[in-house]
Write a structure and sequence with these properties.
By secondary structure, the protein is an alpha/beta fold. The chain has two domains: 154 residues, 3-Layer(aba) Sandwich (Rossmann fold); 131 residues, 2-Layer Sandwich (Hypothetical Protein Tm841, Chain: A,domain 3). It is 41% helix and 23% strand. It contains eleven helices and 13 strands. The strands form three sheets. It has a six-stranded mixed β-sheet with strand order 10-9-8-13-11-12, with helices on both faces. Strands 2-1-6-7 form a four-stranded parallel β-sheet, with helices on both faces. Strands 4-3-5 form a three-stranded antiparallel β-sheet, with helices on one face. A hairpin with a 2-residue loop joins strand 3 and strand 4. Helix 9 packs across helix 10. The protein is globular and about 60 Å long. It starts with a strand and ends with a strand.
């Protein structure tokens, strides 16, 4: 028997993860010198988190260590069960070096252990939508190998677009230089972030003189859907926001008007991702042609 795992950097909502039978690896962040483990929204104070960021608090994200992974996986291996972990992009964190150490040590203890990790090469619901689709596929009676191959087919069809309200948070995370962040603030540039095929973040467009919830910004996202949405693929369109529910509602309404038969999910960006993109961010995730 195989046990499905995912991490909370995939941001699949906790009730959905539970319904699909996932064991959830909670990723850490520190705010005001207190460490928390993000639980996919079950007990998360999203409003309080972003309020502290707006007040100047600087949250810090960190990697799990090898012992953390061993504690998570060993109870499953002791039962003789297989592990299938659908993870966020290894290009965006050093945590997977620690994961590799843990897997090496565990397979020395349990030589017959089967531990498979699929790298979604994505983050936030870009990874979460893959976990969701894989969970449904696996629970329909497919094997780990078949589900792995299925993920390989859909992974590069996942499109992610995030419009970031303030470049200072990207600067803190080392995604852009201090000079670019300053110029962005002066000229009111809102970068549009995408996830590349190799699992890295990149700027794919720059919107000037707009707010993230403005008509121009939301129209940009709607145009992205209209250019490449795979309308026949049975998957939700996901709208996420970092404490900007008004922009989220506006984008969702526009999508619903254009695609009345599509399922649309709305949810907040969690603290781990939010620490890097900052409050006011609006995001869109969908399956492209």
């Amino acid at each position: 028997m195989a046990v499905l795992f995912l991490d909370t950097d995939a941001e699949l909502w906790w009730t959905t993860a539970k319904e699909l039978g996932f064991e959830v690896i909670k990723m850490p962040y520190t705010l005001d010198e207190t460490e928390y483990l993000f639980d996919s929204g079950e007990t998360t104070d999203f409003k309080g988190f972003y309020k502290r960021m707006r007040e100047g608090a600087v949250p810090i994200t960190s990697a799990l260590n090898a012992e953390n992974y061993k504690e998570i996986f060993e109870p499953v291996l002791k039962k003789g069960e297989e592990i299938f972990y659908i993870s966020f992009s290894a290009e965006l964190s050093g945590t997977f070096a620690q994961y590799d150490v843990a897997v090496k040590e565990l397979t020395e203890i349990y030589p017959d252990a089967k531990i498979t990790r699929f790298d979604t090469r994505n983050i936030s619901m870009g990874a979460g939508i893959q976990a969701y689709l894989a969970g449904k596929f696996f629970n329909a009676g497919h094997t780990v190998e078949e589900t792995f191959d299925y993920l390989g087919e859909i992974s590069k069809k996942v499109t992610v677009r995030f419009i970031v309200d303030d470049m200072v948070y990207l600067k803190r995370g080392g995604r852009i230089s201090a000079t670019k962040a300053t110029l962005g603030s002066v000229f009111k540039i809102k970068p549009v972030i995408k996830v590349t095929d190799d699992g890295k973040l990149d700027v794919c467009a720059k919107l000037t003189g707009v707010t993230t919830g403005s008509k121009k910004a939301l129209n940009y996202l709607i145009d992205e859907i209209k250019k490449s949405l795979d309308e026949d693929f049975d998957a939700p369109i996901v709208v996420v926001n970092a404490d900007d529910e008004e922009a989220s509602a506006g984008l969702t309404a526009s999508i619903r008007e254009a695609y009345p038969d599509k399922e649309i999910w709305e949810q907040p960006v969690g603290p781990v991702i939010g620490a890097h993109c900052g409050p006011g961010t609006i995001g869109l995730i969908f399956i492209s042609k």
